[in-house]
Amino acid sequence: MTFKIKSERMGMAQTQGKGERQVRSAAARLAAVQALYSLDVGEGSVEELVRAFMNGAVGGYTMVDVPDPAGIFDPTETRTELEPPDGELFCQLVRGAAAERARLDEVIQATLSSDWPWERLEALVRAILRAGVYELLERPRTPPKVAIKEYVDIALAFYSGPETKLVNALLDRVARSARPEAFGTKAG
């Protein structure tokens, strides 16, 4: 399966100002979202998808719309190689989010505003939110602000509308509730 992102933003966001570890972590998060999306639309089992991503059969590249600099012609589509993901992080995110899917969906549904009922969420948005909420709840070593920014960057690679604001707001609410100490507040 190939994902098409709306611009080269994800490739650039993956590498700008980041060290190799951060780039590999960003790639793992993107690959995890892709795998969780595939699971949601019935394109394989968890272990089949983990194997496919880990051996490079799936997820090593994406198709990107490159705008015409003069603005005269339609964008052209080009294949963009992605950085190799941090395999350990990728596996933890996919296996963990898949195993905890029902609980994650409950958290997401409880946190959604009335403007965004569960039924309105596209499969890709659900995948981004599941990965993000899982990381916020189950990976305490990841600073919440880092996790939120990474998943907002992923959302921005696919969407330019309100979906990115939804991802940001929902993950922020979950983080502040689950890890208030990271925001200088106490649980209560």
From TrEMBL:
Residues 27-176 form the NusB/RsmB/TIM44 domain. Residues 1-21 are annotated as: Disordered. Keywords: RNA-binding, Transcription, Transcription antitermination, Transcription regulation. GO terms for biological process: DNA-templated transcription termination; transcription antitermination. GO terms for molecular function: RNA binding. Transmembrane segments: none annotated. One of its GO terms (cellular component) is cytosol. Pfam families: NusB (PF01029). The keyword Ubl conjugation does not apply. Belongs to the NusB family. HAMAP family: NusB (MF_00073). Involved in transcription antitermination. Required for transcription of ribosomal RNA (rRNA) genes. Binds specifically to the boxA antiterminator sequence of the ribosomal RNA (rrn) operons. NCBIfam families: nusB. This is Transcription antitermination protein NusB.
